[in-house]
Amino acid sequence: MSTNRLPDWILSAPSGGIGGLKADRAYDALRRAILFRLHEPGDQLLEQQLAHGLGCSQGTVREALLRLAEDGLVERRGYRGTVVTETTLAEAVEMVRVRLSIERSVAMTLAQQGLGDGAEEIERILGEMDAAHGVGDLDRSSVLDRAFHAALAQAAGLGLLRPVLHRCALHIHRFTLGGVEVPRDFFQEAGVGAEHRALLDAILSGGGERASAAISAHLAQVLLRWAPSLHDAVGAQAFALPVAAEGLA
Fold first, then answer.
1. Phi-psi region of 134 (alpha: psi -120 to 50; beta: other; left: phi over 0)
2. What is the pTM of this model?
3. Burial of 205 (0-12, 13-18, 19+ CB in 10 A)
């Protein structure tokens, strides 16, 4: 069981939240600890110990734990306390499939109508991705990756699906960040911002089917790079270009 004491690199990492409130910093620190498996599934998180380790009040920790419960990263069990959840392989597979369905629709819509008013926000996120990559901040890169794909959904007029995309991407990242299937520096061969700019260009420069194929290939490559076992469990066919679109590739 976890001791609820977090290492300095978790406590001192830049906040992924939009503000500097203590609850935001506590949430970010605990989220990082869970994603990088410093708090393992089944670990009990004790508010008093966490408050001492984070240098904040129990009320601040409680607020952070409630947000983590909304994400599905912890489960509040009343008098039994708060326990870190587990994302099973079966659940992760279904989240990949849900994400594929939504993101294909988003890509096809953007191929037809463009980014519109969402272009400025997306460019801002890409700039922050470059900065995060420059300092090797994998966690910040993952936060921005989720923000990028959510912003695409918003630009496509599918903003109500952002919470679904966030939940799916967060738990998929639990596999990619918390796993040990590939060396950590393997991901650093390509810039995160550059990779997503290439994806965006592919979505906007072709027709709807090509855009769908581009986002499918992007998600497949991410899993192959970070969590090959999850890619294999989903099945290569799930990422394949539909037969009707093969002639457009």
1. alpha
2. 0.86
3. exposed
Tokens in use for 224?
């192959």
Please report how many Cα atoms fall inside a 13 Å half-sphere around the Cα of residue 198, on the Cβ side.
Answer: 8
Which residue spans within 77-197 are E strands per DSSP? 82-84
Per this entry, what is the length of the chain?
A: 249
- Dihedrals phi, psi of 214, to nearest 5 degrees: -65, -45
Q: Residue 78 has which token pair?
A: 């009343």
Strand stretches in the chain, DSSP E? 44-45, 74-76, 82-84
Separation between Cα atoms, residue 96 and residue 232, nearest integer Å: 12
| pLDDT 10s digits, 149-183 | 999 999 999 999 999 999 999 999 998 887 766 55
